[in-house]
């Protein structure tokens, strides 16, 4: 499933085509994705203007004129394809042809900016909802989401307070969307390696008994922010399904230090360790047992 960097790069790709533009026509080629589409979905969007396109955790949020928010989630295999309405695409240097099977083109937005935006989702785990703006924060999908890791307010003190007293591993805590928004298996593994922290360490040990941050918390927050910024700059990671809106593939997978590198040497300067794979909470964890021993 796409994580924060992948969703953010998609948001940046959609922003020029959507922000400030109106929905001229909307095609809903099926009634449901992971959930049913809102009743009268196409009719309710037609003529509305996108005032802003934001991201919250792994969700895209299009703020609409009239007071609603279009909530979109890519699911496991969803992607947006942006083309001019005459059908011309804008493939980049990492372009790989996407599925254009009509059966998988579930929603098409025709925008006043002159582009068509097609949501293609073979596995149909994606999501589109219309939520009144004043009720968004309390919507079940939003109200339990934790802090945004790239916000200035997310610091060592905040993470330490959240983790203090938690009876779970550091890997499990960081993978919990209630603890940190938008992180998933890839970037948790990568951040823990950069911070030289074991994924098996108790989450509570990044805080003192009073809940104050210690050196581990400081290093971990710095690593989370760095790995996310690096991944966004690289267009995210393309492993199975993630592609950008112009057809490009993200390239951060070529910079993984531990993820999916079991049996390979650690890239940390001076470290002679070998990357190991274990299973935690049903998910693969990749780490270096030699330099991630703190």
Kindly estimate the percentage of residues that lie in beta strands according to DSSP: 15-25%
CATH class of the largest domain: Alpha Beta
> What's the CATH architecture of the largest domain?
Alpha-Beta Barrel
Spatial strand sequence of the major β-sheet: 1-6-7-5
Mean pLDDT comes to 88
What's the helix count? Answer: 6
Unreliable residue stretches: 88-98, 238-251
Structural write-up:
The protein has 294 residues and is an alpha+beta fold. The protein has two domains: 135 residues, N-terminal domain of MutM-like DNA repair proteins, CATH 3.20.190.10; 132 residues, Helicase, Ruva Protein, domain 3, CATH 1.10.8.50. The chain is built from six helices and ten strands, in the order αβαβββββββααααββ. A four-stranded antiparallel beta sheet has the order 1-6-7-5. A four-stranded antiparallel beta sheet has the order 2-3-4-8, with helices on one face. The longest helix is centred in the last third of the chain and has 19 residues.
Features:
single chain, 294 residues, alpha+beta, N-terminal domain of MutM-like DNA repair proteins, Helicase, Ruva Protein, domain 3, four-stranded antiparallel beta sheet, 10 strands, elongated
List the helices and strands and how they pair.
Layout: H1 4-18, E1 23-28, H2 41-45, E2 50-56, E3 59-64, E4 68-73, E5 79-84, E6 105-111, E7 115-120, E8 127-132, H3 156-163, H4 170-175, H5 185-194, H6 215-233, E9 276-280, E10 283-287
Summarize the structure.
The protein has 294 residues and is of the alpha+beta class.
């Amino acid at each position: 499933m796409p994580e924060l960097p992948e969703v953010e790069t998609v948001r940046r790709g959609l922003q020029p085509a959507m922000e400030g533009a109106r929905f001229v026509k909307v095609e809903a080629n099926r009634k449901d994705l992971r959930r049913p589409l809102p009743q009268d979905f196409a009719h309710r969007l037609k003529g509305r203007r996108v005032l802003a396109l934001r991201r919250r955790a792994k969700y895209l949020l299009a703020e609409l004129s009239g007071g609603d928010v279009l909530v979109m989630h890519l699911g496991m295999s969803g992607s947006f394809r942006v083309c001019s309405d005459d059908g011309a695409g804008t493939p980049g240097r990492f372009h790989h042809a996407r599925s254009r099977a009509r059966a998988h083109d579930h929603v098409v937005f025709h925008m006043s900016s002159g582009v068509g935006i097609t949501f293609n989702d073979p596995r149909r785990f994606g999501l589109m909802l219309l939520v009144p703006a004043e009720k968004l924060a309390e919507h079940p999908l939003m109200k339990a989401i934790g802090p945004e890791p790239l916000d200035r307010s997310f610091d060592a003190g905040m993470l330490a307070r959240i983790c203090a007293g938690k009876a779970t591993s550091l890997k499990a805590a960081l993978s919990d969307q209630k603890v940190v928004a938008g992180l998933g298996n890839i970037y948790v593994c990568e951040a823990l390696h950069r911070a030289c922290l074991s994924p098996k360490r108790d989450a509570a040990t990044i805080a003192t008994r009073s809940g104050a941050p210690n050196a581990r918390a400081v290093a971990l927050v710095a690593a989370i922010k760095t790995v996310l910024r690096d991944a966004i700059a690289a267009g995210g990671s393309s492993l199975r399904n993630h592609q950008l809106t112009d057809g490009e593939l993200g390239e951060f997978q070529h910079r993984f230090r531990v993820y999916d590198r079991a049996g390979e040497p650690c890239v940390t300067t001076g470290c002679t360790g070998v990357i190991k794979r274990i299973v935690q909470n049903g998910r693969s964890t990749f780490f270096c047992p030699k330099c991630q021993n703190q």
